[in-house]
Design a protein that fits this description.
Arc Repressor Mutant, subunit A, 6-stranded mixed sheet, alpha+beta, Trna Endonuclease, Chain: A, domain 1, single chain
Length: about 375
């Protein structure tokens, strides 16, 4: 089983790295000269989405050297970049030349992780840099994400569904699940479930009982970061804007969705978050998120045209989306979803795991973390599921 995503667009690289490294790094304060700071203080990271040729690389490394003084506690100040028009040997040569030009106490703390025209590089060859390189390499190259045991993480729409079942179980404190229960809940095959459990076990994110039931042992920060990254490379979401140029009105659109209930539709994003967390901390409704089950494309095109005749798909340079439709690989919604009493018939809310992913996708990181905490706080332990 294999998975290969296309390399992330430059403008998405920094956000993707933050999502992938959120368990070990945080955004740096202004004046730090870098984008991310390690929570353990060992690394500071500067992201350059796209460099072109020798001069760009040299300028970025000189800037990185200035950041060394601003981050005296960091063992390494690391440049993570994609570099066009430069080979691996030439990039490594330029990196070493810049290091040699600097005073040892500065040069020896510089590190480079980059994708070049003929492959990725990481220097110097020390444990701290190698560990970081192993984590970010898939983002730079579009290659498979590997566990410490060398198992391929085949993140696809189906394997994400398996992960969501486990995440929902943890959020709602449902207790350990058998593999058969995960197969049924995710509408996946046994080999697919096994591949995900093998990956998560390699990450140390799941615990197994003596009867082989499994559950997340804590917030799965590493796999969550990876899922957020790969979802951006999958064709599972369609964004729409108001084609008339008028000011967007998400509340009006929500009323139309509630009035035009169709099988296979659930409310997600901010609307569902407010249901699950009544004190959800956000004013207004910047956009509307809905989930739709697998149907022929024409089925959902007709539905979208009915609820929003002026909607058109977003293009580069458009304003923020008014509606985001998340396409699920499953053919039917889960039967245990909570429902919106303000619609007739009652429209279901998307499962909590999906809602949290929507909030992260919308850039509402603090709200996503707050909802995660709220769901765990309100959940009471439930019996084991078979």
């Amino acid at each position: 089983m294999s998975f290969r995503s296309e390399r992330l667009a430059p403008e998405a690289l920094e956000e993707a790295l933050l999502g992938l490294l959120k368990d070990s790094h945080r955004p740096a304060a202004r004046g730090a000269g870098v984008d991310l700071l390690g929570r353990d203080g060992r690394t500071a990271i500067e992201v350059k989405a796209t460099l072109s040729g020798v001069r760009d690389l040299q300028a970025a490394l000189v800037q990185l050297a200035l950041a060394v003084r601003a981050n005296p506690s960091a063992e390494f100040v690391v440049l993570i970049a994609t570099i066009k028009r430069l080979s691996r040997p030439r990039a490594l040569q330029e990196f070493e030349q810049v290091r040699e030009m600097l005073r040892p106490e500065v040069g020896h703390r510089l590190a480079l992780i980059a994708a070049t025209d003929d492959g990725p590089i990481a220097a110097p060859d020390v444990a701290t840099v190698r560990e970081l390189f192993d984590r970010v390499k898939p983002l730079l190259t579009g290659g498979p994400i590997l566990t410490a045991r060398g198992v391929t993480a085949a993140w696809t729409n189906k394997t994400v569904e398996v992960w969501k079942v486990l995440f929902d179980g943890w959020l709602q404190n449902r207790g350990p699940m058998t593999s058969d229960a995960i197969v049924r809940a995710s509408e996946s095959s046994s080999p697919t479930v096994l591949s995900v459990l093998t990956l998560l076990n390699g990450y140390g994110e799941i615990e197994r009982g003596s009867d082989r039931r499994v559950m997340f042992n804590a917030l799965p920060q590493r796999s969550l970061g990876e899922v957020l990254v790969v979802l951006r490379t999958m064709t599972r979401r369609t964004s729409y804007v108001d084609g008339t140029g008028r000011a967007p009105d998400p509340h009006r659109l929500l009323r139309k969705v509630q009035a035009g209930v169709r099988a296979g539709v659930s409310l997600g994003g901010i609307v569902a978050a407010r249901h699950y967390q009544p004190d959800f901390d956000l004013n207004g409704l910047p956009r509307l998120d809905v989930c739709v089950c697998a149907r022929p494309a024409a089925y959902w095109e007709q539905w979208t045209a009915r609820v929003g005749p002026a909607l058109r798909e977003s293009r580069p340079g458009d304003p923020l989306a008014l509606l985001v439709v998340h396409h699920l690989p499953r053919t039917e919604l889960r039967r245990d979803l909570e429902r919106d009493p303000s619609s007739e018939p009652a429209l279901p809310f998307a499962e909590p795991s999906e809602v949290i992913l929507h909030l992260y996708d919308a850039g509402l990181h603090a709200q996503a973390e707050s909802l995660t905490t709220a769901l765990r706080s309100r959940a009471t332990p439930k019996g084991e599921r078979s």
